[in-house]
Amino acid sequence: MTGNTIESRLEQVRSTLPPDVTLVAISKYHHPDDILSAYHAGQRIFGESREQELALKHSTLPADISWHFIGHLQTNKVRLIAPFISCIQSVDSERLLSEINKRAAQNNRVIDILLEVHVAAETTKSGFAPSDLYKFLDSDLWKGMNAIRIRGIMGMATNTDDTATIHADFQTLRQIYDHLKDKYFNSYPHFDTLSMGMSHDYPIALQHGSNMVRVGTAIFGSPLPH
Ligand SMILES: *Cc1c(COP(=O)(O)O)cnc(C)c1O
């Protein structure tokens, strides 16, 4: 890690990103004061992984923050975040998508979502298996959901030191993204987001066309266990 303040680390990460890449600062488990430090350094997009923690932070932090949800989202907690969430990156079932659509409509909102795709070796990671994703998109169920906008996909590489595996995982995600854009979202100009890359692997993700990186530890340090 370079620098020893949130501001300097944020600046360091930013300096490595091409201008067309969106930085989501992952603030899960970090204190609101740390989020404010990044906010005062100009960061406006933050990502959280727990519904209650996010709802609390949203209620106390500046209103012009865009919040992204990146964790496993429980269907019965969608209503907690539906009034304000900008983007839900971790959509991995038809049931969840339809609940988000319902709650967005109730709040007179349109919520951006990313389809989470599972390509990593770990079975613990969530996301649609690619074949299930194609099945879901072929079903056309999503086409009637007017309160959500499918913006793209989100994925993670295998957690490993083997860079060849990381390259291969990001390459696979890129191919899935291109395939979806080509086959299902050709006439949807807002389908434009390939979210991949975290603190330790985002430089590799950028090489494979990521245009949204989700960086936590490299900005805020390691989250405290709790
Ligand atoms: C925690 C998390 C991140 C950020 O990871 P860091 O290693 O802290 O940068 C990114 N994406 C998802 C889905 C996460 O859960």
- Reading the helices and strands in chain order gives HEHEHEHEHEHEHEHEH
CATH architecture grouping: Alpha-Beta Barrel
Q: What ions, cofactors and ligands are bound?
A: pyridoxal-5'-phosphate
Tally of helical segments: 9
Which strands sit side by side, in order, in the main sheet?
7-6-5-4-3-2-1-8
CATH superfamily: Alanine racemase
Helix content: 25-40%
Instruction: Give the averaged pLDDT, no decimals.
Output: 96
CATH class: Alpha Beta
CATH topology: TIM Barrel
Quick one: biggest sheet?
Answer: 8 strands, parallel
Alpha-carbon distance between the two ends: 23 Å
Which of globular, elongated, flat, extended, rod-shaped describes the shape? globular
Structural class: alpha/beta
User: Can you tell me the number of structural domains?
Assistant: 1
Kindly provide the radius of gyration, computed on alpha-carbon positions and rounded to a whole number of angstroms: 17 Å
Strand-residue proportion = 15-25%
Q: Name the poorly predicted regions.
A: none
The number of distinct β-strands equals 8
